[in-house]
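Give me the 3D structure for Sperm acrosome membrane-associated protein 1.
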Amino acid sequence: GIGIREVLLTSGCPGTEAKCIVRVEECRGPVDCGWGIPISEGLACVKMPCIYIPPENRFKYVWKMLIPNKTAHILPNDSAIMKVCRDTHSVTFQCETQENGNIIASVKYTVYATTETETKKSRRIETGQSRRTTTDAILVFVLLTGIIVTVGAIFAMILMILHWAVVKSIWESKSGQDNQDKKLANKSSLRNME
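Predicted structure for Sperm acrosome membrane-associated protein 1 (194 residues):
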């Protein structure tokens, strides 16, 4: 297709540059550029561009309506952008960009019927709503779990503060009992040595 290409140099650039642009040139690649995306797409009409580079009037544009198992129907439109209103069935269009009688680029578009567009839109809305509901449920669960854990930790701390004397006596009794156990162990080891 047509386009602009930057020619880069990867060695011998000035200074410490690893890459530098040598020149910018027009490039020509494969003619078939595949499927295009419309400029604007509404419920009623679609605007589709051909492939071109400025100046637009440098090229000739041939729009075709592609019909399955039949020869393509050439349309009278010869501009770079074509506006098509939706019909009761889907239609595929192709634009060929020509220069000096040669095809240098080609792009295709499918314009879906009004009913297909509405069906796709309702499917997107349904899918989006079901995902949103699942995500909301997960967020609510995580939030409630976090609140319960936080309240439980605060409640345990309050109980410890209110009953500090009891907690302190338990720690002291345990440490006192540990000291008595150590003293008894030391006495028994001394007796064994004698």
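Residues 126 and 132 are 10 Å apart (CA to CA). Let me know if you want a second pass.
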